[in-house]
Request: fold
Amino acid sequence: MESIVISLGGSIISTDGLNLNFMENFARELQGFGGDYRFGIVVGGGSLARSYINDLRKYGVNDNILDEIGINATRMNALALSSFFADSNSKIPVTVNDAAELARIYRFTIMGGTEPGHTTDTVSTLLAERINARIMINATSVDGVYTDDPKKVKGARKIPSLTYDEAINLALSKSVGAGPNVFMDLTALNIAKRSRIRLYVTKGTDLSEYRRIITTGSTSGSIIG
Ligand SMILES: Nc1ncnc2c1ncn2[C@@H]1O[C@H](COP(=O)(O)OP(=O)(O)O)[C@@H](O)[C@H]1O
Ligand SMILES: [Mg+2]
Reply:
């Protein structure tokens, strides 16, 4: 059986409220895969997390607590998503260790974040490493890795394929200044590199991408590794 991990960006499922329509279609698409595959899905916090964090930050709440709040948001999103899957956990694991045990039981193991300082992309690569997934799909708000942030820089170009070191250097060069807005954080990239987990960065709302990546190994987004 092949293991696939998906980092489902918060922006995909939580925009103005929960994207229930997407969740339903996403679950239908993945459940269409036979028993040859099992999935680990790590869900981000999206607007639910952001609304709490942005408001509380104004009151000087420290980053550790803001992260805890964000993590709780990811777990709420994860629990909501799990409702759409027939063969998934209905209790959200709080560690990769526990998620790995659930992955022995369920075809779909769904979780959110784990601890402050770790993004859900990092949790995804750790889960991929743990359950021997060879690929991790970063289903995000942009359709690939660009030479610059495509939401800010006009003329940024998509990079179809990068080595781990190229991705790490790109993330490093963009990590200056405020805001964590890189396509994927360095910890996640380094975990993927050490265990040679191939990363796919693609637009998460494009449902056809999941089947394309899983069955053909190609993507309209970017491949790292
Ligand atoms: N070089 C880059 N290539 C692609 N996206 C980038 C790059 N640099 C910054 N970004 C930004 O990274 C973000 C990745 O999405 P993110 O905010 O993590 O949402 P999600 O929770 O859906 O993953 C996008 O907002 C995108 O604009
Ligand atoms: Mg992301």
Observations:
- Residues 9-12, 44, 140-142, 145-146, 148-151, 174, 181-183 surround adenosine-5'-diphosphate (ligand 1) (CB under 6 Å).
- The CA atoms of residues 2 and 37 lie 5 Å apart.
- Residues 63-82 form the longest helix (20 residues).
- The chain has a mean pLDDT of 95.
